[in-house]
Structures are given as structure tokens and as C-alpha cells.
């Protein structure tokens, strides 16, 4: 894998991606941040050697490089999921490549369902901790020790310095920002009433189908990471309604300006 990572990074650098400082992974329906970037170069995933290709219709599948808040950033517009048939190593390969390109911080966003019924759709949740329910680990492969410590510590998976800054920004900007635990499941089906009750019992505040693999690998690489969930539906098992993907995407779009504000000001604050 190390050889593949180096080959991928060399190709991307040849496309003008020079010394990015911050990596950003944009989740489902979360693309408005791209409009704030002074784009220098972009490349489709299917043109990048050894890179997976996005298969979900609302995932764009581009790697974008440019300037945001005075910093060089590399942005994944579209991410990969277990439910698309990828392995956990495939899903996290871009994180390893971005680290090889030189990023010093990683920011992640996702769309998720609110298990904590004090949280409402259209609001944001800063992830403080997570529960991995995807049935595997992106570190469980032969030779992983050549890329980082096999037995990676996960006692503080999300960077406390960046998380503190994010909370301060939300306060100043009058943005509702919850803080909680994110549970990552395989999908693509949404949860049953019994599963929502289970997730609530084990301490989850929100549930989604991404983020945790990328965060595990960021910790493996000793790469500081923060993640924010856009809450797109409310998972009340006693009043559960059929899923409406269009409504989920609409609420993601509604929350995007606040997410964009937080990410822009956070990047501006990074030294």
C-alpha cells in the first residue's frame, strides 16, 4: 500500500496540488463549501491512480485544491462508503494520500440522523466520540505497522484543540452546535425502531454510515481530526416515518451555511 500511496500522491502533485495544509472530507449533500474556495486545480477520482470511484448519485467524486481562509486546502467532494461495496482500506485510502501530500489537519463532515431527541434536524453536532458498528477496522490488514502504530490509541479520537475552537466559533456566530457521540453503521438501509432504541441505549447521539473509518486512520497517522454532523432527520422510534431522501438532502443544504462558516473560521485560526 505504501508504494500505491506514493504513486497516487506523485500523480496528484503533478496536477498542481502543492503542499496543502488542511484536508476536508465533505459528506452527503454538503458541497457549498466548494463555492468559498479559490480553486487552483481539481481532478476526478476516476483519473487518479489507485483511487476508488464514487458510485452514489449525490456524491461528486472530485479532489479539489485551492485556497480557503488563507490556507491551502485539499477537499474530497464525495466520499466512499462500505455500502457501496468498498473495503475499509479503500474508504480510508484518500486520508493516507492527503497525509502524504502534506496536510497537517483533517476536517470531516457528514449527514446523520439525530438519536438524541433534544437535537433537531437542520442543526449541527460536533463529534466528541464515536461507536464503531461497521464490523471491522481499516487498520486490520497485513503490513499496517509500516504505515503507523498497529495498536492505535483512541482515547481522544477527536482533536480537543480544534473542537474547542469550533465551539467558540459557534458561540460567537450564534450557531446551534450540539456535542455528542456518533455511531457509524454499514447501511445503506436506515435503522428499524428497535435499532434506534438500541443506539440510544448504548449512548449514541447521532447515527450515520461514514466518518469513523477516516477518523481511525487519521489517528493511525497521528493526524489531528475534527468532525461535524449535519443532522438531517430525527430518529424517534415511537413516531417513525418512512425515509425521505429528498428531505434529508434539503436539511443538509439548510445547515450548510453554518457548517461553512465554522470550517472557514476554523481554518483561518489554524497556525
From TrEMBL:
The keyword Ribosomal protein does not apply. Signal peptide: none annotated. Pfam families: PNP_UDP_1. SUPFAM superfamilies: Purine and uridine phosphorylases. Belongs to the PNP/MTAP phosphorylase family. The purine nucleoside phosphorylases catalyze the phosphorolytic breakdown of the N-glycosidic bond in the beta-(deoxy)ribonucleoside molecules, with the formation of the corresponding free purine bases and pentose-1-phosphate. This is Purine nucleoside phosphorylase.
Amino acid at each position: 500500500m505504501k508504494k500505491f500511496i506514493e504513486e497516487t500522491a506523485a500523480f496528484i502533485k503533478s496536477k498542481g496540488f502543492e503542499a496543502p495544509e488542511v484536508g476536508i472530507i465533505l459528506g452527503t449533500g454538503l458541497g457549498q463549501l466548494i463555492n468559498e474556495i479559490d480553486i487552483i486545480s481539481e481532478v476526478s477520482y476516476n483519473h487518479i491512480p489507485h483511487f476508488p470511484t464514487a458510485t452514489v448519485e449525490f456524491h461528486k467524486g472530485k479532489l479539489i485544491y485551492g485556497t480557503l481562509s488563507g490556507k491551502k486546502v485539499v477537499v474530497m467532494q464525495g466520499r466512499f462508503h462500505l455500502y457501496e461495496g468498498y473495503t475499509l482500506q479503500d474508504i480510508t485510502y484518500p486520508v493516507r494520500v492527503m497525509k502524504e501530500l502534506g496536510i497537517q489537519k483533517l476536517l470531516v463532515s457528514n449527514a446523520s440522523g439525530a438519536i438524541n431527541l433534544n437535537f433537531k434536524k437542520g442543526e449541527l453536532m460536533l463529534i466528541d466520540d464515536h461507536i464503531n458498528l461497521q464490523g471491522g477496522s481499516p487498520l486490520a490488514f497485513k503490513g499496517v505497522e509500516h504505515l503507523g502504530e498497529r495498536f492505535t490509541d483512541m482515547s481522544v479520537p477527536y482533536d480537543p484543540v480544534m473542537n474547542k475552537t469550533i465551539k467558540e466559533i459557534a458561540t460567537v456566530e450564534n450557531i446551534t452546535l450540539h456535542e455528542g457521540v456518533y455511531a457509524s453503521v454499514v447501511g445503506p438501509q436506515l435503522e428499524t425502531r428497535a435499532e434506534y432504541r438500541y443506539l440510544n441505549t448504548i449512548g449514541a447521539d447521532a447515527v450515520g454510515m461514514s466518518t469513523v473509518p477516516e477518523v481511525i486512520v487519521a489517528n493511525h497517522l497521528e493526524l489531528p481530526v475534527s468532525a461535524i454532523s449535519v443532522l438531517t432527520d430525527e430518529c424517534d422510534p415511537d413516531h417513525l416515518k418512512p425515509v425521505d431522501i429528498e428531505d434529508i438532502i434539503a436539511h443538509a443544504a439548510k445547515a450548510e451555511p453554518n457548517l461553512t462558516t465554522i470550517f472557514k473560521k476554523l481554518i483561518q485560526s489554524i497556525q
